[in-house]
Design goal:
- The N terminus is likely disordered.
- The chain is α+β, with helices and mostly antiparallel strands.
- It is 28% helix and 27% strand.
- It is globular, with a radius of gyration of 24 Å.
- The chain has nine helices and 15 strands.
- Strand 13 and strand 14 form a beta hairpin.
- The strands form three sheets. It has a seven-stranded mixed sheet. Strands 1, 2, 5, 12, 13 and 14 form a six-stranded mixed sheet that branches.
Length: 329
């Protein structure tokens, strides 16, 4: 995270500085990279593609002659981005009377938060909030919504998946969302999703696929494994930092804990039993953070006696190919 020297009045982060200090911790965070492919120089529209596997390219020679055989399956979609902005402010009086008061500057400079720990707190929370909202809009965004927290881009559960299911373009399993899962339902649900995936998705190596699941599904699956005495070595890996990683038939089961509250808030669905089975690079975030004219500014406003931060960049989301998606909800 960036450091800010005391006494600076205005901090301008332009181009690569803005990318390194603000945007890189957001767009290239491990959690984001684990779910999305990020395109960093999109400021309007750009084609996104998926290159399918080539098959059956060998043939008997049968003498001289040129007889080409084999096709490269290239699928294209378009990602559109819109300009978004971040405007934040922090006032010193929020910390007066708290344990943080001792971190304020002395005397008449107490209202100036630049160069203090509060600048770091604000920037850290800004990065965390950006990541959280990007995950929200990618899955629950709706450009037709009047809610400015989600109308930045269209998302999978709110817009794309209903369209794909209505058009019979993706395999769909009814998971009885709205009803709590019971014993055995976690394993049964993941089995149904896995068995009903398209041939295209089934052919992708397990390490390149992921099962994104709501908290209901994740916890029930874990409980089912424990209740049935299934070998933990086959389904559970403890990572180096102590976090657990569940798998199903060699495919990572990744919990998306915020899906429960977002489904309730934006889709009016309680007990969201959501499963999204896909290839790891199928979801794309588009942005222009690599653009050298990008700028983010942090400054102390003497008149308002507030620390302020502003930033602008482009953001959009889309998926590459529907054959790489199987859903349950």
């Amino acid at each position: 995270m960036a450091t800010f020297e005391a006494g600076q009045f205005r901090i301008g982060l332009v181009g690569t500085q803005a990318q390194e200090m603000l945007f890189k911790p957001v767009f290239f965070d491990a959690e984001i990279e684990d779910i999305f492919e990020t395109m960093v120089l999109v400021n309007n529209k750009q084609q996104i593609g998926y290159v399918g596997a080539m098959e059956d390219i060998m043939q008997l020679a049968g003498g001289c002659g040129w007889t080409p055989k084999g096709n490269l399956g290239l699928f294209e979609r378009c990602i559109e981005v819109d300009e978004v902005k971040v405007n934040l402010e922090l006032c010193y009086d929020e910390f007066v009377g708290t344990v943080y008061k001792q971190k304020l500057k002395a005397g008449s400079n107490s209202s100036n938060l630049e160069g203090t720990i509060f600048m770091q707190i604000l920037m850290t929370r800004m990065v965390q909030a950006l990541k959280k909202q990007m995950l929200k809009v990618a899955f629950f965004g709706n450009k037709a919504s009047v809610d400015d927290a989600v109308n930045i881009t269209d998302g999978m559960w709110s817009v794309y998946i209903p369209q794909l299911v209505a058009g019979n373009l993706v395999p769909y399993i009814n998971s009885n969302s709205g009803t709590p899962l019971g014993a055995g339902d976690g394993i049964d649900l993941l089995t149904a999703v896995w068995e009903n995936s398209s041939n295209v998705l089934a052919a992708v190596p397990e390490a390149q696929k992921v099962l994104l699941v709501s908290a209901n599904v994740y916890r029930q699956y874990l409980q089912d494994l424990q209740n049935n005495g299934v070998s933990s070595a086959a389904h559970l890996t403890l990572l180096t930092n102590g976090a657990q990683r569940l798998t199903f038939n060699g495919i990572e089961v990744k919990p998306m804990y915020d899906w429960q509250q977002y489904a309730d808030s934006y889709l009016n669905v309680q007990d969201a039993n959501f499963v999204l089975y896909t290839e790891r690079t199928n979801f794309v975030l588009g942005t222009d953070i690599a653009n050298p004219i990008n700028q983010s500014i942090a400054w102390h406003d003497e008149e308002d006696e507030k620390l302020k931060v502003k930033s602008k960049f482009y953001l959009g989301f889309n998926y590459k190919h529907s054959d790489l998606i199987t859903v349950a909800y």
